[in-house]
Amino acid sequence: MLGGTLSATLSAMSACAPAGTVQSRSGPADPPARPGAAAPVFLNGQAQIVPAFQDTAQWIRQELWVETGVDSDQDGVMDRVHVDVTRQRQTETDGLRVATIYESSPYFAGTAGDLGTFWNVNQPLGVAPAPRVPQPELPFAPVRPRIARSEVNTWVPRGFAVVHSEALGTGLSTGCPTVGDAPEQLAPKAVIDWLNGRATGYTSVQGGTRVSAAWATGKVGMIGTSYNGTIPLAAAVTGVEGLAAIIPIAPNTSYYHYYRSNGLVRSPGGYLGEDVDVLYDFIHTGTPAARARCNARYRDGLFAAQSDRTHGDYNAFWASRDLLTKIRGVKAATLLAHGLNDFNVVPEHSMRIYAALKAQGTPTQLYLHQGGHGGPPPLDMQNKWFSHYLYGVSNGVERDPRLFVMREGAPRGSTPTPYADYPNPLAAAVTVYPQGRGAQVGGLALRALSSGRDSLLDDVRFSGSALAATPASPNRLLYATPVLQAPVHLSGTTTVTVRLASSAAAANLSVWLVQLPYDSARTGSEGHVGVITRGWADPQNHAALTQGGNFASMLPGTPLVPGQFVSLTFDLQPDDQIIPAGKQLGVLVMSSDREFTLWPPAGTRLTLDLAATRLALPVVGGMAAWQRATGTP
């Protein structure tokens, strides 16, 4: 049990259940042909290791190709997905039917390692970038009967089959890597259809003998991290029957929100200069015969024409690669996991999906930790999720708290803290206003100034960490609370409103929420201990940035009039963090962020109207908690 808060209801299926019986959500499956044969066993609501399933030498391993009904490379032949299966001997000898854990990835056949093919970010804003040199072609391995070993040792002994597949255009799957649009959604759907008898599998990539999945119950759960966590959601938005549960870990749910922010060109943390075409080169390990055709159609065609690295605006290209636009199709119960200091795939990816699934009534839970990219939920959370939704075990998981958070400093393997929901229902917005001189360290007050301006000079030579750590700088504005007398628990999304004028027609705007004194030690994914959260926006998109929330406006940005003030409102990344007593909570405003944005020439001046600039902080306990911590009336 997690934190002693999970339902105490035991599974109706236990170690004493009759041998040879497998339960599903729709009732008992067909019994095995041989009475008394081994079958999955459930105790305390979780699948147990069954000794008869532990001998790896007896496992059955298959290789096959599933026809997708997609022709992404337009060669006149339907693409086929390369699949491997690992299942118990009893599924062959005793007629045992089992549920399936499925992971799909574009990474299984390897990836590029040459970082020299990223975009050069050292360029002025608002101009077309210099061409990028494509990645040299990746090696092709024509024989790979074992695609991956992930999940196998965890789930096969517990009575699940494990299936892997390679994304289109990677490994031995045919077609092209389309990086996020419909083919990437339909390929895993085809595998789930095959597990349910609705699609055809073959013993070879061309022609071949038909292969069925008579051993499968048809109930499928998907799991994976990062790109491998994106694909479960991509399959789920199709509404495919049989996909009962998914556990996406740090999923990229929108390629726009991965490579852009509020109209601004932004790199994922740790991969400065990456973009959708770079990712295409990074994963394109498919057959050399199709590469020239795929490159022309996608990387050098569609991506080059529509991804718009010059302006960073949202458009139909990005909308087609945004799973939130398709979320109504999701019927699979979804357990999302994300690191709150993940600035590779930033936390908003999971939070947007969580809120949308909750609003439409799809069963969903959220597991958050304080680390960087990746980090699965504890195994017992996964087990309860899959046991309930794939085998119908009555373990109460659907009544568990919606949110589990690994609190600050919790040791690895410890129990996460449960909460009723995300954001914490006790959180309320506390609005604070900057005052004083931010070139040193100004203050944060509960009332706005009647007037006042403050300015900074852009210079990308200085990182945000350096600017947060220094007592004074002309290249940033920093405003902070008094030293906290009590902890402040932030849960939710900080919304920033800035009224500014720029000396140039285009400028980056970067805002960090930090702890002072600042600690620059890394926590992963280009996160730092001193960073609470961050956000970025393009002031040229001020007409669309009026209220915060998910940015999906197709209204293009317009050049700024130097010296003319504009107002924009946007969100920082969602968070759930406790700022300890003895620290100060500060807001850092700068222009270019050398870890994430383009690097324009130094010298652009941003001037803030302090009377019209504010932050709405999601404080657990609201105003009373804030006043108690800051000592302000």
User: Which secondary-structure class do the elements indicate?
Assistant: alpha+beta
Mean pLDDT: 93
Could you give the count of β-strands? Answer: 33
Anisotropy-based shape: globular
Name the poorly predicted regions: 1-33
Characterize the main sheet: 12 strands, mixed
How far apart lie the N and C ends? 43 Å
Radius of gyration: 26 Å
Helices, strands, pairings?
Layout: E1 23-24, E2 27-28, E3 42-43, E4 46-47, E5 60-67, E6 80-87, H1 90-93, E7 98-105, H2 152-155, E8 160-166, H3 182-195, E9 201-202, E10 210-211, E11 216-225, H4 227-236, E12 243-249, H5 255-259, E13 260-261, E14 264-265, H6 276-283, H7 291-306, H8 316-319, E15 333-339, H9 348-360, E16 364-369, H10 379-391, E17 403-405, E18 417-419, E19 427-435, E20 442-445, E21 453-457, H11 464-469, E22 477-480, E23 488-492, E24 495-502, E25 509-516, E26 522-524, E27 527-528, E28 531-537, E29 566-571, E30 575-579, E31 584-590, E32 605-609, E33 614-620, H12 622-630
Parallel strand pairs: 7-8, 7-11, 11-12, 12-15, 15-16, 16-17, 20-22
Antiparallel strand pairs: 1-2, 3-4, 5-6, 5-9, 6-8, 9-10, 13-14, 17-18, 19-20, 19-33, 21-32, 22-31, 23-30, 24-29, 24-32, 24-33, 25-28, 25-31, 26-27
Helix pairs in contact: 3-4, 6-7
